[in-house]
């Protein structure tokens, strides 16, 4: 009897572990936190709608991740970074994973509905179409698919802002959207570059197969300066109503510009831009209080 209980506990732990991988818990938690910061940027007060927006973003990210793993079950088995996922290993069937993905997306819609903002439902549909539709279909054909997929990656703060009742076309959230859009490209390209040999061996379209190293570094540096400009622009918009010079933007811009003198391979880690952008968004929330 004890053996059966032990096996049941082991199976349950394995299933929970597989769910965590399907949902990509660290990413989904980060998305939820950023979405809540976007909410607070428009409405700096704690409410049930704030947490509904956070849970909605968590389950939407988890659902999109699970659905993406169903779509890429075969190709995930080719790469060391993804071959240990539950679907390539056969721990979970595609049908079960698809049902879980649909359940999580349904939960996301339910939580977003609690915010009483119909525009969050429109953005949810857009995320699914862009990420699981266009981006997933294009990524095996062209490295420029990231230019499309990054739109979905930049959505979390916008989702929170809209859930709080803000306009999608407000200059403050649009400039922040640009920052998060620009974050996605170096983040993804740097992760791909770490495994470039595997991608090249599978004839996957990645930047290193399209551009020589010199051109790649130039593109990364151009993207870096675009990021710096977006940070300074956001700081200017954020502080325009305070009647003071944008000291925040000037300081941040100076730091980033000085940092650009350092070789990018030494300066940039995969999560540098994400951390910097999250800190910037948090600072903007504090400024708006």
UniProtKB/TrEMBL annotation:
Transmembrane regions listed in the UniProt entry: 21-42, 48-70, 91-114, 120-137, 144-166, 172-193, 224-248, 268-287
Keyword annotations: Cell membrane, Heme biosynthesis, Membrane, Transferase, Transmembrane, Transmembrane helix
A GO molecular function held by the record: protoheme IX farnesyltransferase activity
Tagged with keyword Transmembrane helix: yes
Main location: membrane
Catalytic activity, EC: 2.5.1.141
Topological relation to the membrane, as annotated: Multi-pass membrane protein
Subcellular compartments: Membrane
Name recorded for this polypeptide: heme o synthase
Organism: Halodesulfovibrio aestuarii
């Amino acid at each position: 009897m004890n053996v059966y209980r032990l096996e049941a506990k082991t199976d349950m732990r394995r299933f929970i572990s597989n769910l965590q991988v399907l949902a990509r818990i660290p990413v989904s938690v980060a998305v939820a936190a950023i979405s809540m910061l976007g909410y607070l940027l428009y409405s700096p007060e704690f409410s049930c709608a704030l947490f509904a927006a956070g849970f909605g973003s968590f389950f939407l990210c988890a659902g999109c991740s699970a659905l993406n793993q169903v779509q890429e079950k075969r190709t995930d088995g080719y790469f060391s970074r993804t071959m240990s996922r539950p679907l390539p290993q056969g721990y979970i069937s595609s049908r079960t994973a698809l049902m879980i993905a649909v359940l999580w997306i349904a939960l996301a819609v339910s939580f977003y509905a609690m915010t009483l903002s119909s525009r969050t439902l429109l953005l949810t549909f857009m995320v699914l179409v862009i990420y699981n539709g266009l981006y997933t279909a294009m990524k095996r054909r062209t490295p420029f698919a990231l230019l499309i997929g990054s739109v979905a990656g930049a959505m979390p703060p916008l989702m929170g802002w809209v859930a709080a009742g803000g306009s999608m076309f407000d200059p403050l959230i649009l400039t922040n959207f640009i920052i998060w859009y620009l974050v996605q490209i170096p983040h993804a390209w740097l992760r791909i570059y770490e495994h470039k040999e595997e991608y090249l061996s599978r004839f996957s379209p990645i930047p290193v197969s399209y551009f020589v190293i010199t051109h790649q570094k130039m593109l990364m540096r151009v993207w870096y300066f675009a990021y710096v400009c977006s940070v300074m622009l956001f700081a200017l918009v954020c502080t325009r109503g305070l009647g003071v010079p944008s000291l925040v933007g000037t300081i941040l811009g100076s730091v980033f510009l000085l940092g650009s003198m350092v070789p990018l391979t030494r300066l940039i880690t995969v999560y540098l831009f994400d951390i910097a952008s999250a800190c910037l968004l948090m600072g903007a929330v504090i400024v708006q209080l």
